[in-house]
Amino acid sequence: MSVGQQARADRIRQMFDQVAARYDARNRLFSVDRDRAWRRRAAQRASLRPGQTALDLCTGTGKLAHELMSFVGPSGRVIGVDFSPAMLELARRREPQVEFRLGDVTRLDQPDASVDAVTTGFGLRNLVDRNAALREMHRVLRPGGRLVILEFAPPPGGLLMRAYHFYLSRVMPAVAGLLSAGEGSAYRYLAETVEAFPEPAELTQQLERLGFTVTAERLTFGIAALHVAVRRH
Ligand SMILES: C[S@@+](CC[C@H](N)C(=O)[O-])C[C@H]1O[C@@H](n2cnc3c(N)ncnc32)[C@H](O)[C@@H]1O
């Protein structure tokens, strides 16, 4: 990672450390409680069975990791990785059954082909070196294992999507700024990263080049997307 990329990653980590305490409440508010259903769907699409192992990357406060626990059961294992100490502190308090590790998802300490599923919810968009992280996800998955990526999607055209663009880039930063001084910038960052993120078709191609077989679906009028990528044998 270059010095510039490292500096950017440090700023992103600091931002998540600062918003951690309010992160879950803001998600519920701004997604009108859809975020819970999206994570549940992502966990289902990982197709885990009791006793298996899942890795939830950019786990934040551990909400998606929590959903995975019900599929692997008490004999299975869910490991959550994040580089923000404040997010992980909340995750550890709220999800005691999950094993949380502080770490950078572009450099995982997990052995090759050692997990049955990798998930990431609203994480990929925040990564300074997305390709390095995707290569790591491919490396740690066993052949036939599933990578599930839940992420906001850049709004497609149409009136509804122009309204969504206004909500994302104007309403959310303004409301966040009113609720807590300084938080508006975190939501301007959110809008910028959503609009700069690749279309589902482009992300599909990137995953296929890395050795996955991919299906993608848009959720809730297309504002979020779920990619399910199976590691080819
Ligand atoms: C928008 S939050 C998503 C949290 C959670 N997965 C969810 O569903 O709400 C993005 C998370 O990615 C983490 N993150 C960003 N870049 C990272 C990296 N390179 N390595 C590890 N974690 C990273 C941040 O600390 C933050 O907790």
Characterise this structure.
- By secondary structure, the chain is an alpha/beta fold.
- The protein has two domains: 3-153 and 198-231, Rossmann fold (3-Layer(aba) Sandwich), CATH 3.40.50; 155-196.
- It is built from eight helices and seven strands, in the order H-H-E-H-E-H-E-E-H-E-H-H-H-E-E.
- The chain has helices spanning 3-30, 34-45, 63-72, 85-94, 130-140, 159-179, 184-196, 200-210; strands at 53-57, 77-82, 99-102, 115-121, 141-152, 212-219, 224-231.
- A seven-stranded mixed sheet has the order 3-2-1-4-5-7-6, with helices on both faces.
- Strand 1, helix 3 and strand 2 (77-82) form a beta-alpha-beta unit.
- Helix 1 packs across helix 4 (85-94) and helix 6 packs antiparallel against helix 7 (184-196).
- The longest helix has 28 residues, at 3-30.
- The protein is globular, with a radius of gyration of 17 Å.
- It starts with a helix and ends with a strand.
- It binds S-adenosylmethionine.
- S-adenosylmethionine (SAM) binds at residues 9, 12-13, 16, 39, 58-60, 63-64, 82-84, 87, 104-106, 121-123, 126-127.
